[in-house]
Structures are given as C-alpha cells and as structure tokens.
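REVIEWER CHECKLIST
Item 1: Sequence provided? yes
Item 2: Single chain? yes
Item 3: Sequence as submitted:
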Amino acid sequence: PISIVIWPTVIAIAIYILTAKTNRPYRIWQWQKQQWHFLLKAIKIGWPTGLLIGEEIAFLFVFSFFMGKISISTLAANQIALQFIGFFTTLVWGIGQATSARVGNKIGEQSGTKAKLAGITGIQLSLAITLVIAIIFLFFPHAIIAIDFHQPHTQLSNEAAMFLRISSIYLILNTTRILANCALRAYKDTYFSLIVSLVILWIIAIPLGYFAAFHSSLGPIGFWIAAIIGELVGTMLLLNRFIWKKNDEPLLARH
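Item 4: Structure as written out by the authors:
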C-alpha cells in the first residue's frame, strides 16, 4: 500500500516540475549545463542530514529492542505510544521544512535579522501546536489510545497511557530540536546537528536509558527519562547555536 501511494506521488511531482511555467527559467534536468560544483556542495551539505535521520531511526530501533527485553506487553505499549508520537512529529517536520525554506530565502536576500526571526517564528509555531498535543497526551491518554485499541484500562493500555504522559515532555523538546536543526540547515550548518544527535542519542540516552531501565527501580520509564535528558541537552545546544549565529544584527539586541 505504501508503494501504491508513493509512486504516483513521485510521478505527479516529476510531471509538475517538468511542466510548471514557474520552473522553466531554471532549465531543470539539463544536466550538461549544470554547474557541478553546486551539486557537490549540495551533497556535502546534505549527507549529514541523511545520516542524522538514519541514526535517529536506529535509535528508535534500539529503544524498542530494550522495551522488548523487559516484556512483550511493555514493547506493545511502547509501540502504541510511539505510533502517535510519530504521527504528530510528521506535522512538525512539515513546519520544519517550511521554516528552512523561509530562513534560506531571507539569507538569500542578505537579511540576517529577518532570517533569524523566520527561524524563531517557525519554532514558536511548532511549539504552539506541540503544546496542545502534549496537553492531550498528558490529560487524555486513554482517549488517544482508544483510537485503535478498544480495551480501555487494561494493563497494556495503562502502560501505554503512562508512556504517552511522559512523552508529552519528550515531544516538546524534540519539536524544538527539530525546528532548530531545520533553521540551521538553511545556514548550511548540518555537521553540528549531526554531532549533537550522535552525542545525545548514543552517548547520553542509550547508556543512561539502559542503566535506568535494567539497573534501577525506574524500569521502562527510565529509558524515556534518559531520552528526555538527551533531548534537553540537544535542544539547548542547537538553540544556542542558532540564536548566536553570525548575523548583521544580534537577534537579542535591544532597541
């Protein structure tokens, strides 16, 4: 079913790119006329983002693996929580792509201050949406779970509700980190985000989560706490880098 949806989408986008009047000045697909050093620069900027996405998917695999080592019920409850988190995170990624484009446009206009404000606006918008989702996760987790699991207040649904409640904090931090990462991408700053992701996921979250889940009284909730700690560190680092990015006028300057 996924392929049935994706392939027509790819074909439709390709047809639009080739036929849209707004794209004709760019002479798309005329490869013999390309300036290849621009393409090489795009690869140089883009591969850290691809690797970042890959390592975050791998982190979720390890996350689920540890939950499965605790119990099948815990794994199922965790997957129920993760599927809803993944759905709403997709909305955030969409805002992130738009934010990256807006920041890039303002950088192209050589308006550093407007570029920073575009990034901050994107972060604020995503946070506003995420806060609403987080409140629902926090106070109405069973209503969310009931969308596809019609056995309320069983051990499985109660554990999934516990994961959804604590994930409300994770979601807020993860949203901010994603938007800061997208804003930095417009500055061609992708290596720093990759390094931060490596540190917070594989040096902080996984070792700390393993210890908390298997060698403390926290149990499976310990891995979520470790993930939150990692996200907090990553969010602070990326926000700090974005806010103090070199600019024609400091974002925090007083007027």
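Item 5: Key structural point noted by reviewer: Residues 28 and 34 are 9 Å apart (CA to CA).
Item 6: Recommendation: ____
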